[in-house]
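Problem: given the chain below (731 residues), write out its structure.
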Amino acid sequence: MSRFTRGRINLLLLAACALLIATSAAPAYAQLVYGSVVGTVEDQTGAVVPNAAVVLTNRETNQNREGNTDSEGRYSFANVLPGRYNVKVTATGFRTTNQNDFEVNPAIVARIDVKLEVGQLADQVTVEANAALLQTDKADTHTELNAKQIENLPLGGYRNYQTLINLVPGAMPAMFQNSITDTPGRALNTHINGGNAQTNMTRIDGAESVNVWLPHHVGYVAPEETVDVVNVTTGSADAEQGLAGASAITLVTKSGSNEIHGSAFEFHDDQHLKARNFFQGYGTPIPVSIYNNYGATLGGKIIRNKLFYFGSFDGTKQKQGGPGFYTVPTADQRNGDFSAYGSKIYDPNTGNPDGTGRTPFPNNVIPANRISTIAQKIQSYYPAPNLPGTINNYTATGGPILDRNYYDLKLNYNRNEKHVIWGKYGRMNAKAGGAGVFGIAGGSGLGGADPGIGNTTTQLATIGHTYTLSAHLLLDGVVGYQRQVQTVLGNDYGTNYGQQFGIPGTNGPDIRQSGFPNINFAVGYSAMGVPNWMPLFRTDESYTHSDNLTWTKGSHEVRFGFDLVRHHLNHWQPELAAGGPRGYLDFSGGVTALNGGPSPTQYNAYAAFLLGLTDNTQKGLQYILATGREWQFGWYVADRWQVSQKLTVNVGLRYELYPLMTRAGYGIERYDPSTNLVYMGGRGNVPENAGISVSHKLFAPRLGIAYRLDDKTVIRTGYGINFDPIPFSRP
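Solution.
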């Protein structure tokens, strides 16, 4: 690389880091993407060794950090990126001692105490790590999931690392909450220690990742092959950890090293590798069930000891099929002939207004001139029965499809011995969904899939750095960005079927109001139409910015921090009214039954449909682009005080602020039931907050104590207050 090119790269990186520093409102909130290494250096008699030289070396990148023990023999390295490290200690009159191959993980304080032997400095004593390190210097309750566990333990469907959250004490079994159509990343929902699933906070390499519309889901599900370590904090968190009402989940992805490492994989499963369903008769074809997950990773150096990369591709193709049983009208029922059935069909034009005194149609047959032309058009979308009987007389096989690709790239740059920079970009492209049993007319999704197709793109980007200002002062910062763009369209999108049938008021002038009206029967027959939450259009964004300042002095490691999160919701989606913008027509059969007589049957319901007499109609009106703008702020100061070699006290104070969400360009709405009026914030004389106030007193003290009885036993206790940041962006 030319000196000119390298100079331009340095200039660009300096500019990016200057932005991180310049945009700090204050010293900042720790994103916990780093760990720490502490220890005490003693001689063989147990006396501390002051002013010993300590070098911390990353085994994969050869990045060195240098320091010295203080008058009490203590040393400390803050803001250590996750990885495997060596510690080398040298002191006059003692042999050089190496403590090799120990692991540092995010949000963890690794204690590496060193005993020096008297001898020549040129002599070497090397100790290899052979046991897991105790948590001796922090009081928080957490669970670590490392890359080895994630790679070797069974992950269930879609090889999602979140499956292993089931190993966290207090966690309920993680499960899929929403359909594959609108959550193709297949994020899992879980409650930890009874907390609200919507307030679990997940950070991926420092950037908050949340599905803004469905906040019980993480926004970007990092592929299993890219995950280095996951830290799940569930209690007694330090002051630097906040903006989370339940658990705080920190995920760090893999980085490159001086050595080239890579992998390639494919997982295949299909119906021929599975046993026959218990209810499937011998000789019956097993429904299609194909799952392919394949990909590759590659990591290494671009410039030795300087610039490293790690890239990954992960693809998934899935096609499932399963049998379903449905009820459709027979040929005689379509013609209004119910003479073969025991239920009497009463003429609603006879009798009294309250339904008494009605008389049945002659021979239980509705005259052809009484059958609605609209009903005739609609019922043409029902297939003919392919099974005998009048209930569950139609079967079809099908299921969801998923075509999903992940692309991930991470760069680490050791600019010099004082400045480390890293950046990450991830992208998911997915097409997912299924077909309705009645094709264009929708109906129940085959194999449990929703009858529609969703196209989703999720992007996550983050850049961070650590800068050593002096031997006792460190600055680090992170900026992150996530963007989710999604379109979900029903199989009926683009055609105004309701208008074609002649039903007034179903479709509208906007193409998003197109489609097939929902036709529902209170008893018996399978419904038509797509789910009321379709179509869906959204572009949701999240911004993360954090800065941190660490000051070490003697037995104290003091951290100051500031953190902000910004959520943008830009969402067009019907959901509240049955049938959505296409309309909903329900037929219960009461109008063709006798008041005081037997209860209506499925035949009464279908007769009402043929007559065009609905029991209930609905339509969602005034669908607009729903927007939300939400800020979250946090400030903290924390001190990790090494009172003695065995006692560590973590004390701190957080302050959090959650301004009231707004819409794009104006405030929030407030409904006053006493006046039956809706006040529009920021419009007319109404203030932007519409008279709704938020608390400015959210102070959260934190205290943790860790006492090491011996090398195998640690007693930890803690106290703290957390505030529940329930996201209000969902309208």
